[in-house]
Structures are given as C-alpha cells and as structure tokens.
Amino acid sequence: MSLNTLLTQLGLQRHDPHSLEGQLHAMRRDVQHLRQLLSRQTGQTANHWGDQLHEIGSAVATQTGEFAQMAGQEARKGAGMIRRDPLPAIALAGTALLLIRLLSRR
C-alpha cells in the first residue's frame, strides 16, 4: 500500500500544489481562513459599537436625570412664588385665556 492510498483512506490526502485538486484545496483553505477573519472582525466591531452605544446611553441617562432635577427645583421655586403672591399667576392665566378666546373668534 502506498502512502497516498493510506492518506486517502484516512481523509488526509496530500495534494500536489500544481494540480487542479491541489489548487481547489488551497482555495478552500484560504476561503476558510478569510471566513474566520471576517467573523472575528465582525465580532470585534459589534463589541466596539456596543460599548460606544452603552457609553452614549449612560451619558444621556445622566444628563436626563440632571435636567429632571433642575426642572423639579424650578417648579418648586415657581410654586413657592405663587403661594407667596398669586396675583401675577392669576393675571398671566387670565391674559392667556383672553388671548386664546380672541384668536379663536377669527
């Protein structure tokens, strides 16, 4: 039994690099290598984008919380001002209602 026969039976056939079969085998190996590289690169890119989106989301959440806190403080200040002197708020509400009524007649 020859070495080529033994290798063929084991599924480990040696290919002549200049034969068509050898070239096809080399192309399959290259395609497999490219597929692995592409898969690895895709995974790394997805991780990178995921990390960046997480950072952006965290920053937005932090700023939204700060904005909500500032809005709450301003609302409390406004409520306190209205409790101390309700006349400007009543005048403002009355002016707004009068303006709406005048504009809706046209």
UniProtKB/TrEMBL annotation:
It comes from the Bacteria. This is Uncharacterized protein. It comes from Devosia marina.
